[in-house]
Amino acid sequence: LKHALRMLSNLLSLQCEQIIQHLNHKIAGVNIAELCQRIQTSGIEINVGDLAKITNIISFLFSTAARNNLSTEELVATLGNAVSALPKHAVQVIRHIWNEQGKSISVSEDARNMATMGQFVDIKWKLGVAMSSDTCRSLKYPYVTVTLKVADPSGQITDKSFEMTIPQFKNFFKQFKEMAAVLETV
To answer: Which PROSITE patterns did the record assign (predicted)?
Structure first.
């Protein structure tokens, strides 16, 4: 039991640190899927949706505490009043992280007026050929699959995938060339 609590505390600590890095604009967001996989690998049952809710709550807690310039004790007292069922070890982890790194959170006007759009993190693509389907035996239809990794305003990183026909991809590529040309004039 002590080992499981220590492991859970370490993972919660990692999650809190990533949230603070996100709030300081040092990383695009918290990779919920990767964190969930690490937690599950350690033997703790949790799903991505529940972990996302926890991340959003801690993010809101830290950003509100930073805006209001709360001390560690004020944060813990507020947390105790708001969430009565929070395990003691979780409160200790949050207290420790806030005490060590809470003052580093940026509270500039830009941070207060956070953008409502997502932030691009990464892109992956692959070329495929559909050979056949249940209605057509010989398709030989080429397509491009694109996967965008995007951080939403709360910091959750998600993958967005879509497929394009070759003409759609050529149009997509043309628009990127136009953007690049405009950027070179700036």
So the answer is: COMM
- Rounded to whole angstroms, the Cα distance separating 27 from 37 reads 19
DSSP sequence for 145-182: EEEEEEE-TTSBEEEEEEEEEHHHHHHHHHHHHHHHHH
pLDDT mean over 76-87: 69
Average pLDDT rounded to a whole number, residues 108-120: 54
| Element containing residue 127 per DSSP (H, E) | strand 119-130
Strand order in the sheet with 157-165: 119-130, 141-151, 157-165
pLDDT at 144 (0 to 100): 92
Predicted model pTM = 0.57
User: CA 20, CA 112: separation in Å to the nearest integer?
Assistant: 15
